[in-house]
Amino acid sequence: MHAFRTILLGASALVAIGVCAGAAPAPKAASASNANPFAQPSPLPLQAPQFDKIKDSDYQPAIEEGMKQQLAEIGKIANNSAAPTFDNTVVEMEKSGQMLNRATQTFFNVVGANTNPALDKVQTAVAPKLAAHQDAIFLNPKLFARVKAVYDQRDTLHLDPESQQLLKIYYKQFIHAGANLSDPDKAKLRALNKEEATLSTAFQQKLLAAGKAGALVIDNKADLAGLSDQEIAAAADAAKTRKLSGKWVIPLQNTTQQPLLVSLKNRAIREKLFDNSWTRAEKNDANDTRSIIQRLAQERAEKAKLLGYPNYAAYTLYDQMAKTPDAVQKFIGALTGPTRAKAADEARQIQAAIDKDGQHFQLKPWDWEMYSEKVRKARYDLDQNQLKPYFELNKVLKDGVFYAAGKLYGLTFRERHDLPVYQPDVRVFEVHDKDGSILGLMYFDYFKRDNKQGGAWMSNFVNESTLLKQKPVIYNVANFTKPAPGQPALLSWDDVTTMFHEFGHALHGFFANTKYPSISGTSTARDWVEFPSQFNEHWALYPDVLKHFAVNYKTGQPIPQALVDKIKKSQTWNQGYELGELLAASELDMQWHMLKADAPKQDVDKFEAQALKTTHTDFPNVPTRYRSSYFLHIWANGYAAGYYAYQWTVMLDDDAYAWFDGHGGLTRANGQRFRDMILSKGHTEDYDTMFRRFYGKDPDVGPMLKHRGLTPDNSAPSDTAKPGTPARS
Ligand SMILES: [Zn+2]
Q1: Are 477 and 452 in contact (CB under 8 A)?
Q2: Got the DSSP string for 360-429?
Q3: Distance between CA 189 and CA 180 in Å, rounded?
Q4: 91-132: per-residue pLDDT in tens?
Q5: Mean pLDDT of successive 10-residue segments in the chain (729 residues)?
Q6: 3-state secondary structure of 658
Q7: What is the reported pLDDT for 5?
């Protein structure tokens, strides 16, 4: 669950900027191809993409022409004979690259959510070119000299605060991108960036193929015992799509644990499904990703060294709220002790449930979900299948996600059936502000497809910017199981929170109220960008909201209060596991990116085991949420040395929610304050300043530990006597 960055130029460190963020007024003469739908801003409302006109073959020429146009624009800025000013340098850069932006923002959406061999080919072709393009801008010495000249005069320019911030960010990005390097070193950096972009693309494509090939094929219906009729029908449908009629297929999700492990009764089948997941990209075949990882880790360390940093993590954390690898290590370290204790306690209770079931086996990771669910049921009498009828997708969306946004921010929504979409399941809504004016357009693409990357994400087709007179056009993508034809889409609690999460990112985008596109909305640090999204998850369980959307799809009855109480009480159960798998993944990421440039190529599996061990995140029976070989976030999606950010932002969102809790909860006044001080700001101010202004203090892990039941006094009651859970600092 993350804000997928469409301006993902390779996994380069420049993801958050964009000289290519923006898009609007027509480029003077789109000489090459007026027929190309990206040559001019879309004539559709708010410049919504013309999916009825765009052909797969339009993307590459548009991206290439867009790069050409931007280079010409940049050349004009760099060679301007007038003395450098903020307006003729920095503002002009913000206005550049609009055709490129239109093309890439749409392209990265379709290649992520609805790809095909032709689009894959385009991605392979353009990824290194885009990385080189980014370099051509940030390594242009004349351009840098002008930016530096403006930056050096910054104290006498009387710029408004947003412009000052933009200038500071541009300058640092140039330095970070290597503008101060000698010419030979610049050439080395260019080669490394290009290699990284190529490797990242290859990783992404191999992983998608590996995930598809790793789907579990079932020959005997009896092996599906435990699944619901709907799940079995969906598995039969998935088999049909793969021309395996008469069989059943369980597709893999891009995490270690698989959703159906909770209900598959046959232990051998569970182990098989888990094993398919665990080894999906380690089969020594064409889809094995390990040799790519070896080189990527090395290549990133070399790049960091070239730029004067001790390792890649130090290099990439410079513009984050955490700032240093040390701060990240301390943060994770503060959580591992309580997490280990909680997970061990959960494991004891799960083993007791296995024994009580008359089973004679020792708990393994593929048993965890099923027996954890049994404990939850026994202890809290809460069964996920009992919940599902209350979480019908349309109700969750309109009476939950939209309803909360109405209560907090006064928003209203109207579905549009007339705007073109890239796939028939995609839905479009007009978003109206509290005064009825149009805030933007929202696209939802919720169902899993074989040609969609795993996970869930949000991004923009069009960014907000008052400079470019643009309003946001935003999309959410997820991977919910598509119901069999004619059936309602019934969601798990996880899916429900995913909807709130991704829509939280969307709100960050819709409320953006900034002049410059490259610091607008979600164009913020990784360890900030998940704060609004995770904060929005809290409302799913807020009594007024939950009661509103959780209505039985068959009977129309609202969810019984007793069931709501059970959900709440059961919230802290399994948090040791859930936090454990995330901390393990966070450390894997950090350890790969703290390698030094002179380290030899690593054996991926050995390195992984060692990394988890030395950081005490090798929690027994709690495998990492992603293994190195299928860790898409860090190898291809711009989250290198940034996966910790999800937990860092939990600290922020739990703390902010504690503020709401102490100030009357779900009210328009509270929503307005959050909108004004956090959601509308993008990166127009420093992150710690924004948080402090909102709350009046710095964030701390207290509410996070409490919310997850990781403080000793707040732990779930235990059957067995246990020593106190010491908090480790
Ligand atoms: Zn997210």
Answers
A1: yes
A2: -----HHHHHHHHHHHHHHHH---HHHHGGG-BHHHIIIIIIHHHHHHHH--EEEEESSS--SSTT-EEE
A3: 12
A4: 999 999 999 999 999 999 999 999 999 999 999 999 999 989
A5: 31 26 35 77 98 98 98 98 98 97 97 96 94 92 97 96 96 92 94 94 95 97 96 95 95 94 97 98 97 97 96 95 94 94 96 93 97 89 84 98 98 98 98 98 96 93 97 97 93 94 98 97 95 97 95 95 84 93 98 96 97 97 98 93 95 96 97 98 95 94 91 45 27
A6: helix
A7: 33
Instruction: Give pLDDT, residue 17.
Output: 25
Whole-number Å distance between alpha carbons of 371 and 377: 9
Q: Is residue 608 among the annotated active site residues?
A: no
Ligand 1 center to residue 259 CA distance, Å?
19
Residues 453-486: b if buried by 16+ CB within 10 A, e if exposed:
bbbbbbbbbbbbbeebebbbbbbbbbbbbbbeee
Joined together, the tokens standing for residue 200 give 């990242």
Distance from residue 534's CA to the centre of ligand 1 (Å): 7
Residue type, 211: G
What's the gap in Å between 523 CA and the centre of ligand 1?
A: 13
Ligand 1 mean position, distance from CA 506 (Å): 10
Strand 248-250, strand 473-480: pairing: unpaired
Residue 365 CA to ligand 1 centre (angstroms): 26
Q: Nearest-CA neighbor of 30 among 100, 132, 122? A: 100
CA–centroid distance, 403 to ligand 1, in Å, is 20
Cα–Cα distance, 590 to 641 (Å, whole number): 5
- Cα 530 to middle of ligand 1, angstroms: 5
With 0-12 CB in 10 A as exposed, 13-18 as middle and 19+ as buried, what is 717?
A: exposed
Query: What is the distance in A from the centroid of ligand 1 to the CA of 200?
Result: 21
How many Å apart are CA 610 and CA 591, to the nearest integer?
10
Structure confidence at residue 712 (pLDDT): 64
Active-site entry in 231, 282, 373, 502: 502
Residue type, 392: E
pLDDT of residue 59: 98
Ligand 1 mean position, distance from CA 46 (Å): 24
CA dihedral 540, 544, 546, 552 (to 10 degrees): -160
- Quote the CA–CA distance of 53 and 50 in Å, as a whole number: 5
Residue indicated by tokens 């090939």: 213
Burial of 400 (0-12, 13-18, 19+ CB in 10 A): buried
- Provide the 3-class DSSP secondary structure of residue 439: strand
Look-up: residue for tokens 């503020």?
A: 659
Buried b (16+ CB within 10 A) or exposed e, 87-119: ebbbbbbbbbbbbbbbbbbbbbbbbbbbbeeeb
